[in-house]
Design a protein that fits this description.
Elements (H helix, E strand, L loop, with lengths): L1 H15 L3 H16 L9 H17 L3 H14 L1
């Protein structure tokens, strides 16, 4: 989880300075780590949902609304 939190924080920092490509990379890497957790993944549901919402916002800023919508929808199914 520590790596996930670190990547989320790096993504948040990149987003705050409008470095959307870096933010997308960080959030995507963090999501990959969460999704590899297997049975421990359910304990990470809230952070996974937040990461998807964050990545959705990034995708909107990168003019990718359809992919942003997919992340948003996926986030809602987790919560």
């Amino acid at each position: 989880m520590n790596d996930v939190t670190k990547l989320r924080d790096e993504g948040n920092k990149a987003f705050s300075v409008c470095d959307f490509t870096q933010a997308l990379s960080c959030y995507s890497q963090a999501l990959t780590l969460v999704q590899r957790m297997g049975t421990e993944r359910s304990a990470m549901a809230e952070i996974e949902s937040v990461l998807l919402c964050n990545r959705s916002a990034v995708k909107l800023n990168l003019s990718d609304p359809f992919s942003a919508l997919q992340d948003s929808r996926q986030s809602m199914t987790i919560r």
